[in-house]
Design goal:
With about 70 residues, this protein is mostly beta strands. It has one domain: NifT/FixU-like (OB fold (Dihydrolipoamide Acetyltransferase, E2P)).
């Protein structure tokens, strides 16, 4: 799915999914490097982001994969 990653006015990372008209803050990253790893949105969605250079400028639209929600 297409996801736009950007920094808001306070410097926090957010993800916007146009198809769902959903904008949520990124609350955690599975690794220190966001690109090529997993991020978790405030609504609980987990997204796998593509590999990109660490100095990639924002905002950027990428093709991300939503991982299935896990039952605890």
């Amino acid at each position: 799915m297409k996801v736009m990653i950007r920094k808001d006015s306070k410097g926090a990372l957010t993800a916007y999914v146009p198809k769902k008209d959903l904008e949520e803050p990124i609350v955690s990253m599975a690794s220190p490097q966001m690109w090529g790893g997993l991020v978790t949105l405030a609504n609980g969605w987990r997204l796998e982001l593509p590999e990109m250079a660490a100095d990639t400028t924002l905002p950027i639209t990428v093709e991300a994969r939503r991982l299935a929600d896990v039952e605890d």
